[in-house]
Design brief:
Length: 293
Amino acid sequence: MRVKIVEVAPRDGLQNEKESLDFKDKAHFIKLLVEAGHKDIEVGAFVNPEKIPQMASSGQVIGELQGIKRVNFWALVPNLKGYESATKSRVSQIAIFTAASETFNQKNINTSINGSFERFKEFVPHAKKNKIKIRGYVSTCFGCPYEGKVNPKAVLKVTERLLDMGVHEISIGDTIGVATPYQVRDLTKMLLKIMGPKKLALHFHDTRGTALANIVMGLESGLSIFDSSSGGLGGCPYAPGAAGNVSTEDLLYMLQGMGVRTGIDLNKQVAASLFIQEKLGHELSSRYLKSKY
Ligand code: HMG
Ligand code: MG
């Protein structure tokens, strides 16, 4: 069995750090991830720099990556302005993002769920025409930091709308890390009625330590795309208190032990995570990185 890992630390990870790293350090980190074997890396976001200053250098980061072949470098794009900056940076993969709950969406991107789709309409057709691959994120699929429980039907509805727009892949986000395995099984089953497993990714934050168990349930449910983050970095400034994404090292260790192939070298992944740990100047949460034996 083989799975695809989408490495999100340079975006989801670094957006949540107090300090903004120099773009050359970010680019070096991404190059170490490429050396480790990653083929899908989320490298930045073209969002309002007043809101997420850590991502302000995304264009420069992408500039440093030109010439690297056969790797999908993804960047978050919320609106036409972001799309214009992304295309100027010659990004060929973009991720649009919305949520299953209204309040989170409003706080995160300053519009309603409907409003986010109105914005997508302004650039998604152009992206498709130009053969730019599009990933669609649905946040707060298992719980919202402001509204609490989220109805799976709301997730289904937003997912259907993204599919109607023609996105290539959908990532189901547990933004605040509340999901448990049977919820994952049930939601996956519902979603697989409207889409194929090759388009469906799971994105777990690990606030309550259930992320790896949820991924095993995703695998058992027939899925093979999982988002993870070097060192367990991550979080969203609009989901205060949520932990980082499931750590890439912990995930690789588990998958290797299960005989699941990823194409990523665990030792080289550790080297990339240790590099970014040193640059950030604090210990990362990954259990594998901390393990001694
Ligand atoms: P807005 O706040 O509605 O702003 O933007 P506006 O349209 O009223 O414009 C305000 C200012 O922002 C203007 O500048 C615009 O030009 C500028 P001013 O005239 O005041 O100088 N602006 C931009 N600048 C650069 N790039 C842009 C852009 N758009 C407007 N694209 C917007 C809406 C979405 C941009 C804003 O609310 C924003 O940046 N929010 C932050 C969103 C974000 O990055 N959140 C974190 C990522 S999502 C996440 O982490 C979840 C995920 O990991 C999955 C999961 O875990 O669930 C993906
Ligand atoms: Mg996230």
